TrEMBL record:
<dbReference type="InterPro" id="IPR000683">
    <property type="entry name" value="Gfo/Idh/MocA-like_OxRdtase_N"/>
</dbReference>
<dbReference type="Pfam" id="PF01408">
    <property type="entry name" value="GFO_IDH_MocA"/>
</dbReference>
<dbReference type="InterPro" id="IPR051450">
    <property type="entry name" value="Gfo/Idh/MocA_Oxidoreductases"/>
</dbReference>
<keyword id="KW-0560">Oxidoreductase</keyword>
<feature type="domain" description="GFO/IDH/MocA-like oxidoreductase">
    <location>
        <begin position="128"/>
        <end position="237"/>
    </location>
</feature>
<feature type="domain" description="Gfo/Idh/MocA-like oxidoreductase N-terminal">
    <location>
        <begin position="6"/>
        <end position="119"/>
    </location>
</feature>
<dbReference type="InterPro" id="IPR055170">
    <property type="entry name" value="GFO_IDH_MocA-like_dom"/>
</dbReference>
<protein>
    <submittedName>
        <fullName>Dehydrogenase</fullName>
        <ecNumber>1.1.1.18</ecNumber>
    </submittedName>
</protein>
<dbReference type="GO" id="GO:0000166">
    <property type="term" value="F:nucleotide binding"/>
</dbReference>
<dbReference type="Pfam" id="PF22725">
    <property type="entry name" value="GFO_IDH_MocA_C3"/>
</dbReference>
<dbReference type="GO" id="GO:0050112">
    <property type="term" value="F:inositol 2-dehydrogenase (NAD+) activity"/>
</dbReference>
<dbReference type="InterPro" id="IPR036291">
    <property type="entry name" value="NAD(P)-bd_dom_sf"/>
</dbReference>
Length: 334
């Protein structure tokens, strides 16, 4: 690789235009080519020729590529980039199904290429800070993770339902902050807006260490909510990823003289702390980490394709659970 990494982008839609903006401003990176068979609706190319295919991008001699095309095309585009020896960051979810995600993972791993998935919520400052605090044992044992991700329907999504588009954020961030994989899920979905795919899911999960999780996700709410609550022996953390705020509610150990209450071994409300944390843009952090991984910098934190594959497996198990009306064990292909 030369002094600057030669980067390319395929997909200039709602997410692609933001990837384009970040790629233009990254140190040690030069955006040399962009492609979108549908053209450049948002004017993101800004002087660069808009190519029409991944083959044309590859012909430009690129070190890496960001893939922001619809989910249905992730596998096809990703496999061509792998065959050409191009390191790749693919928007989430990694692929439309487990089989496609497995093929992509194997294609990049077998060639020794760096492949990553754009699970942007991992890079939200509130969740980054939360994970460090959990790692430092500030909560003690973790009992439960609850997430709520609700809001109106985004017109850009047509090829997957709310489970694979939105719930994959919560599946990934839950496994990441707790460092525990999902082992089973039970879910219920609904179709309320006349579209082909589900637009609401309520899901209960269990992680490998026994932690219980709960995820409410929909495209039917007129208000927007993005919250992650982690409860443990010392209290609970509440991360609001819309505002990137992190709050801690402590369990108070206050002696009580009231006999009926003192016999009950529960918790009582203690101090509440709202942390002041730096708030860099999550997408920029995601790009910086991927660039650092390509440059071989130690500690670069990317969402690997193998992790992306595990997330798709959990999402598929949730859809299967809703169809069958029963709990489904999560099985991630080797």
């Amino acid at each position: 690789m030369g002094t600057k990494l030669r980067a390319a982008l395929i997909g200039l839609g709602m997410m692609g235009r933001h990837h384009c903006r970040i790629l233009r401003s990254l140190d040690q990176v030069e955006l040399v080519a962009v492609a979108d068979p549908n053209g450049d609706a948002h004017g993101a190319a800004d002087g660069l020729e808009v190519l029409s295919s991944v083959e044309e991008l590859i012909a430009k001699g690129i070190d890496y590529c960001v893939v922001a095309v619809p989910t249905a095309y992730h596998e096809e585009v990703g496999l061509k980039l792998a065959e050409a020896g191009v390191h790749t960051l693919i928007e989430k979810p990694l692929a439309q199904d487990v089989a496609g995600a497995k093929r992509l993972t194997q294609a990049f791993e077998s060639r020794g290429l760096i492949g990553a998935v754009g699970h942007i919520e991992r890079y939200n400052p509130a969740l980054q800070n939360l994970r460090k605090r959990l790692e430092n044992g500030e909560l003690g044992s973790i009992y439960q993770v609850v997430t709520r991700r609700q809001g109106p329907f985004p017109n850009r999504i047509s090829d997957v339902g709310v489970v694979k588009d939105l719930a994959t954020h919560d599946i990934d961030l839950t496994a990441w902050v707790t460092r525990q994989p999902f082992v089973s899920v039970a879910a219920r979905t609904a179709h309320k807006s006349g579209r082909e795919h589900e637009d609401l899911v309520a899901m209960v999960g269990q992680l490998a260490d026994g932690t219980v999780t709960n995820h409410l996700v929909n495209w039917l709410s007129p208000m927007k909510e993005r919250v992650t609550i982690v409860t443990g022996e010392r209290g609970c953390f509440v991360a609001d990823t819309l505002t990137a705020d992190l709050t801690f509610y402590a369990n108070a150990s206050v002696p009580t003289e009231w006999e009926a209450l003192s016999a009950f071994r529960g918790v009582s409300e203690g101090d509440m702390v709202r942390y002041a944390i730096a708030k860099p843009e999550p997408l920029r952090t995601e790009h910086e980490q991927f660039r650092d991984a390509l440059l071989g910098k130690p500690g670069a934190d990317i969402v690997t394709m193998r992790q992306g594959l595990a997330t798709v497996a959990v999402a598929e198990a949730a859809i299967e659970s809703a169809q069958k009306g029963q709990t489904v064990q999560v099985s991630v292909p080797e």
